[in-house]
Write a structure and sequence with these properties.
binds magnesium ion; binds adenosine-5'-triphosphate; alpha/beta; binds iron/sulfur cluster; Rossmann fold
Length: about 325
């Protein structure tokens, strides 16, 4: 019932921990929202739920509704508004405000009494919790539901996929995005994830290589110091689509941890976009919505491209 009005469901997987599944899930959600889609994020990492922290909503509480829970709203949908005909006080023209789709989250983190509570659950209880998360959350109509998972292929993954195969239609279950890093081109880890998908008949939507390159917050000399390209080679070898490479950006961490809008030194160009100039044009300050501040992050144009590829792959699969 709770999945009924969701158009597409995608899982985010990785062989190793700490490669950036949760930050990739977060940014896929923000980028999809910026492209006007209504998005939900379900965090089934039961031992280390980090989605509430990524969205800056750690103190939020889920509300009970008849037969289940209401997800926590990160932001409401907003139509694009064109403000260019009015003039700003200082004579400058305002940028038109781009709109965004609504964004909702559900995580075990919201249900734990204390944030730091470690949950040590055995298999059956985990399975029950995952099932409940899939059946009892009133998402409402969504274009995309992204599911952040723990590393590897554990009990949670198995019960997740089993439940999805039963309760979602094949058209709804779009497939999985696999996250890796240039270091963790420990090919065997990714291979395990791909094998897991093939065994469980979950379509592989593509691979994202995270932490490839570096956006320095101090000067623009060394952007792209780290190697990249390994992810693409690996995707080609395993015959799965490659969705893109994502650099390390300390301004993204600052945005998540301190809520500060990203700023970049002159000359910082990422994916062909001048991030310094973008920041100067933006009127969004530290008090703006996360999604508005993220639009100033160097990783935003990167994820805009990734999401376009992902949406294309999902539409092809969905026929
Ligand atoms: N491209 C990036 N730029 C900057 N920081 C990043 C980037 N990717 C990930 N991080 C940071 O690295 C840390 C680990 O990332 P994250 O929590 O997303 O990994 P994970 O794969 O979900 O980990 P786990 O296996 O524990 O669930 C986080 O603090 C995150 O903010
Ligand atoms: S970009 Fe500039 S400040 Fe950053 S590491 Fe390179 S030289 Fe140092
Ligand atoms: Mg995580």
């Amino acid at each position: 019932m709770s999945l009924q009005d969701i158009k597409h469901i995608a899982l985010v997987l990785s062989g190793k921990g700490g490669v950036g599944k949760s930050s990739v899930t977060t940014q896929l959600a923000l980028a999809l929202s910026l492209q006007g889609h209504n998005v939900g994020v379900l965090d089934i990492d039961l031992t280390g739920p980090s989605i509430p922290r990524f969205f800056g909503i750690e103190s939020a509480k889920v509300r009970q509704a008849p037969g289940g829970w209401l997800p926590v709203q990160v932001h409401d949908g907003q139509e694009a508004s064109d403000k260019t005909n009015g003039h700003h006080e200082n004579g400058q023209e305002k940028n038109s405000q781009s709109g965004h789709g609504a964004l909702y989250c559900m995580s075990l983190g919201f249900l734990l009494a204390n944030r730091g509570d470690a949950v040590v659950w055995r298999g059956p209880k985990k399975t029950a919790m995952v099932r409940q998360f899939l059946s009892d959350v009133h998402w409402g109509p969504l274009d995309y539901l992204l599911i952040d998972t723990p590393p590897g292929t554990s009990d949670e993954h198995i019960s997740l996929v089993e439940t999805l195969l039963k309760s979602a239609t094949p058209e709804q279950l779009a497939g999985a995005v696999i996250v890796t890093t240039p270091q963790a081109i420990s090919v065997s880890d990714v291979k395990k994830e791909i094998n897991f998908c093939r065994k469980t008949s979950v379509h592989v939507l593509g691979v994202i290589e995270n932490m490839a390159g570096f956006v320095c917050p101090n000067c623009a000399e060394c952007t792209d110091v780290f190697s990249k390209g390994g992810g693409k080679a690996m995707a080609t070898e395993f015959e799965v689509p490659f969705l893109g490479s994502v650099p390390i950006d300390p301004m993204f961490i600052r945005l998540i941890e301190e809520g500060k809008a990203p700023v970049y030194p002159e000359g910082t160009v990422v994916d062909g976009q001048d991030m310094h100039q973008n920041g100067e044009k933006s009127e969004v300050g530290d008090e703006g919505l996360l999604v508005e501040k993220y639009a100033r992050c160097s990783l935003c144009p990167v994820f805009a491209g990734i999401v376009r590829g992902l949406v294309d792959n999902i539409n092809v699969t969905a026929g």
